[in-house]
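I am still getting used to backbone structure tokens and would like to learn alongside you. Would you supply a protein for us yourself, any chain you care to pick? Start from the sequence, derive the backbone structure tokens from it, and show both lines together. Go ahead whenever you are ready, and we will take it from there.
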Amino acid sequence: MNTRWLPLVLLALLARPVQAEMPLSPAPAPKESAALLQMSTSERQFFALGLTLARGSFAYAEMAGEATVVSRTRSKIAQVGKLGKLAPTARRNRLAAADFLSRTVTLMSAMNAPADALAPVRKASERLAAPLALSADARPLAIFNGAAAQTLSSLNEFGTLSSLPEDPALRKWLTSARVSDSAQVWYGEGEIAALAQIAAAHRMPELLPPAQQIATDLRGLHDWLSLRLPDSPTPEQAALQKSLDTFLRDAALAAKTARNSKKPLSPAQLEALGGISRLLQSQVLGPNSSASETASRF
């Protein structure tokens, strides 16, 4: 999943200062394992890694989406006032980012990730554990609207966090011979599952690849399930398979009439993808998850 374009979007926004999420589960208990997808421990770990890292990196998406709406306000004074009103959302999103990236550090340590791959994630986690630092462009604003300055600083921080999954050292490890092909695939599935849930919750299809690219990814997951599911799948597994069938059928029909292969997900597709992501997470990590649990218990 390539997210390199996201910082550019944020920079464009900053140039004109104009949810409950489904918690991460640890390794399933032995009695739960039989009802889950048959995967190795490593595959589950990498799925969890993609999930937690993406959630931490894009936890500010809610605030950024609302700031985009604010940027369309014509009056600069009104823009500043509206940015100030987003400060509570920014603080809530920052706490979520801090939680998920702290758990990512714990998970990567348990996975014996190399120090250079862990370093940027640890640095981001430590940054979020400290008070928000005002960015250079927000300091003049702080003189007459401190809340707006905090929101603008949070937007700058999101620009840094959203590029974290593309950090060269992290990508080098994830694509190295030390990580199996299947683990790399499941890392990607976890990343997309997280982004899909965020995008669906806040109606932000721009966080995801175009609809046809998503359909290609889901087709691979569908084929994998066809080979791995038992003859008598559990109700949850059957629901996941049915949801995939429906999404791919509808996507195929839409592709026949679409002229643009880069067309984003429609609201209906986004909602369906969010449901698929929740079902997949439950089938990989277990349904009985708790926000206080950590992914390091594999």
